[in-house]
Amino acid sequence: MARESTVRKEMDMKSMMDVYHKLAIPGAPHELLTKMEGSWSVRSTCWMEPGKPVESSGTAEHKMVLDGRFLQQEFFGEMTGSPFSGIGFVGYDNHTGKYVSTWMDTMGTGIYYFEGTAGSDGRTITQFCNYDDPVQGPVKWRSVSRLVDDDTLEFEMYITNSSGKEEKMADMTYTRSKYSMHR
Length: 183
Description:
Elements: H1 2-10, H2 13-23, H3 28-35, E1 38-47, E2 53-65, E3 70-79, E4 82-93, E5 98-105, E6 112-118, E7 124-133, E8 137-149, E9 152-160, E10 166-176
Antiparallel strand pairs: 1-2, 1-10, 2-3, 3-4, 4-5, 5-6, 6-7, 7-8, 8-9, 9-10
């Protein structure tokens, strides 16, 4: 540990900035996010309790921000008969080699943090989030985003409760709007 901090102290400002600049360049992993950019219509199925799915629809706007580094997601729809909206950001951290995401919505005041990797197919991102649910206590979420084709995006969300059982929470199909400006 002492050697590592010594090496860091000895690095000059130009060398440090070179490292940061290199890590800031969007690369191949960001290209998957770019393919998710666009206007989408969304069909959702959510399981709030076992065996009783709730279906709804909505719209989403996805756009690349910060010079192609992050995908900003905005969702508008309903949840259990009430208006629902959310905003998220997905990026690829060149330093850690992982996809990272944040999500916030009108069902709460918290921000959810996800981290994960791409699948070998190059079209799927699987991420995990640990969350202290106000009703269930500590839970683990697993999300799977899959670019099926240029006009279809699938999103699945699973929850693992404190007893270790994983259950599907949501299944969403995004269909690219015919008039998408981001295509």
